[in-house]
Structures are given as structure tokens and as C-alpha cells.
Amino acid sequence: MIQSGGYMHFRGLLFDLDGTLVNSLEFVEASWSAWAVRRGYSAQAVRHYLHGKPALSTLRHFMSDASEAAITQEFLALEEYEASHAQGMTAVAGAVAFLRQLNALNVPWGIVTSGSRKVASARIHHAGLPFPDVLVTSEDITYGKPASGTLPVGGETPEMCRSPSASYLRILTLGCCRPRRRKAWLSKSSHRRPGFMI
Hints:
A hairpin with a 2-residue loop joins strand 1 (about 1-5) and strand 2 (about 5-10). This protein has eight helices and ten strands. The protein is an alpha/beta fold. Helix 1 packs across helix 2 (about 45-50) and helix 3 crosses helix 4. The strands form three sheets. It has a five-stranded mixed β-sheet with strand order 7-6-3-10-9. Mean pLDDT is about 75; it is low at about 150-155 and about 160-195. Among the domains are: about 15-20 and about 90-140, HAD superfamily/HAD-like (Rossmann fold); about 25-85.
């Protein structure tokens, strides 16, 4: 990413989903808290641990004595519950308009999340977001956050390798949504990775 005169020049954008594009954090915490209570775990401990990690990682952490078959069964039940209860989920203010503007400007963008594809797709749909050409989910990664294992996957997909000749964008004029955190991410040795992670 290069900044000059209030403009940003970049190769593409990767967005987190929960809490960045979709108002889902309260639902996620309530869902996992209910699971913890049912299973006899500390709801506070589960909420503290789960953010940014694939659901299977959280289940393996708390169900360390369970078989992989039991953990998988638990995961599928949780996944089905979260995917089927996405109705009424809303987009973060400004997110829909911002993503539509990126599409209009032919700016490559994608979504990178530690959630599963089924859950992420349901939330994107019910929040009314444009569906991304690039969607990296827990099925595509080895490690969840805080590890950066999701980023190269998202940045190296063919859709994110496009380099529009006019990718200048004045963020303030677009009414961009306010992200929770921004991480500049550009490797000088690679021209295949997007320049900005939100």
C-alpha cells in the first residue's frame, strides 16, 4: 500500500467478517456461552478463547479428552445452529455501500474469516452484503488468528492477483465503514498479495 496526498494505492482489500462487515459478535458469544453451559464449561473462559479461532480449534481445546468423531459431531451441530439462525443479522453501518463501491471501481476484494464456509455464507447473505469473489474460511487454512495463516491464502487467489490500472480510492469520499482494526500488509518481494487488511 502506498499513501500519497490523501490517496491510497493498493492491489486489493481483504476484510474480516464478524464485527467488521457483519454485526455478529453478540450472537457468536451467546451461542458459544449456551454451548459452554450445556457442556459444563465456564462460559467466560469459552468466550475469552474463541475469537479468531476456527470452531474446531475451540472444541478441541475444551474437549481435549473427547474423540475426534465426537468433536466433529459437536462441530456440525454448532455449525448448523449458527448457519440456520443468521436471519436478522445486519451489516455494519456503511459496509454494503463500501463493498458495492469497490465493485463499481473494479477493485479486487475478499473476505477472510476463521468461521466455516457454511456459516460465513449464511451471514453474508442475510446481512445483504455483496458476495465476494474470494472467500477464505476455516476449511482453507491451517491456523486461525492470531497466526496469519489466512492472509497468504486470500492474497494468492487468482481473483486477488488482478492489478487494476487505476486503483486509487479516496476513502473519505466513499463513506467507508469504520473497521475495528487495520493492518497494513504488503510484501515488497511479492506482487501477488493485496496491500490492505481490514
